[in-house]
Amino acid sequence: MSTALAIVIIIAVIAIAFAVWMYVDKRRTQRLRTQFGSEYDRMVEASGRKQAETELESRSKRVQKFRIRSLSTEEQKRFAESWRQEQAHFVDDPRAAVENADHLVGEVMRTRGYPVGEFERRAADLSVDHPRVVENYRSAHEIALRDSRGEASTEDLRRAMVHYRALFEDLLEEHVVEHQEVRR
């Protein structure tokens, strides 16, 4: 085999390897973008594509180790009723209703099998299985933080409840029917 032929073969092998690597990398990006949606975009903007993709894959592997389960029918009914009560409570005390909504979301997460630690970890864990609504969780949490500093209006708190409700229903795997009237 001549040196020229050997060089051509080596260049061809390198080109093929590069093409395969590019294809695999592109598929990885597409898979993660599809799985995580806006969370993917948020992470890429914050830390760059490679670091974001590494973190998102790490999240997926971590969450796969959890024993996530669906709620029983009885648990769904109990949580749905608690949610309806909090929505009704919003009229009398919006701040307490938002705080209770956050606690209720945490309780549903815990019951389903998610570890419930600090907020960023909870949001990261939720982003794996609930990417459509994790942004709602982040928005609601931000409003709750602003409220704790006295910077949130009643309209902000209403939006927080709407955000919590979207996440809550996704976790519950059931639409919560609007309350007619809750009597205490």
Please provide a written account of the structure.
There is one protein chain. This protein has 184 residues and is mainly alpha-helical. The protein folds into two domains: 3-64; 73-172, no CATH class. It has eight helices and no strands. The model is unreliable at 179-184 (pLDDT under 50).
Provide a brief overview of the structure.
By secondary structure, the chain is mostly helical.
Q: Tally the helices.
A: 8
Major sheet summary line: none
Q: Helix fraction?
A: over 70%
Mean pLDDT across every amino acid position = 89
H/E element order = HHHHHHHH
Number of domains: 2
The total strand number stands at 0
Can you tell me the overall shape? elongated
Cα separation of the termini: 90 Å
Feature tags:
184 residues, mainly alpha, elongated
List the helices and strands and how they pair.
Blueprint: H1 3-36, H2 38-47, H3 49-64, H4 73-92, H5 94-112, H6 119-129, H7 134-148, H8 154-172
Helix pairs in contact: 1-2, 1-3, 2-3, 3-6, 4-5, 4-8, 5-7, 5-8, 6-7, 7-8
